[in-house]
Design a protein that fits this description.
The protein contains 2 helices and 9 strands. It is about 20% helix and about 50% strand. The protein is of the alpha+beta class and about 170 residues long. Strands 1, 2, 3, 4, 5, 6, 7, 8 and 9 form a 9-stranded mixed β-sheet that branches. The chain has one domain: Alpha-Beta Plaits.
Length: about 170
């Protein structure tokens, strides 16, 4: 798993640590029935900007390899979809309201490692006739720094997410 898949998984893991049923949207495994509300974590947008001159951040010495590595990075603004879903038999709209309270508290805290939460918003809970689920759209806007490590020959070796926890 690399890149944007890792970012979605990091957000889902953070929400699970907060006591929420969170899964990444469109997983490769079959979904199981859930009790209460579940959050489908997706990435709705990713906007990048420079973090240094031509994305070059400098060099660092790798103690393990005994070689210098170049660092390249970008500042990114990520908009996550954190859509809440609940079946009527799992508590319906009331389950979504409880999960939204927990989600709101989680997003007002320090947030996931490497992601700084700038803002979040929630829409109105509605019943979807076709899926027979209650749905509440939620978005969270985060800021992070993505950087890659290149060896002396210019080949990229690693990709990481960096941010500040407040």
């Amino acid at each position: 798993m690399a890149g944007l898949d890792e970012i979605r998984s990091r957000m889902a893991a953070f929400l699970a640590e907060q006591g929420l049923e969170a899964v990444t949207a469109w997983p490769e495994v079959r979904r199981s029935r859930r009790n209460g509300a579940a959050i489908a974590v997706s990435l709705r947008s990713c906007e990048g900007g420079p973090a240094g001159f031509q994305d070059y951040l400098g060099e660092r010495y790798n103690q393990d390899t005994g070689r210098w590595e170049e660092l390249y990075g970008r500042r990114v603004k990520l908009t996550f979809g954190l859509d809440l879903y609940a079946a009527q038999r799992s508590g319906g709209a009331a389950a979504i309201d409880r999960a939204l309270d927990t989600l709101s508290a989680a997003l007002n805290g320090p947030g996931p490692d490497g992601l700084h939460i700038l803002e979040f918003s929630a829409g109105e809970t509605e019943f979807q006739e076709d899926s027979e689920l209650y749905h509440c759209p939620v978005e969270a806007v985060c800021q992070a720094r993505l950087y890659a490590v290149a060896d002396e020959g210019g080949a990229f070796l690693d990709f990481e997410i960096r941010g500040e926890r407040l």
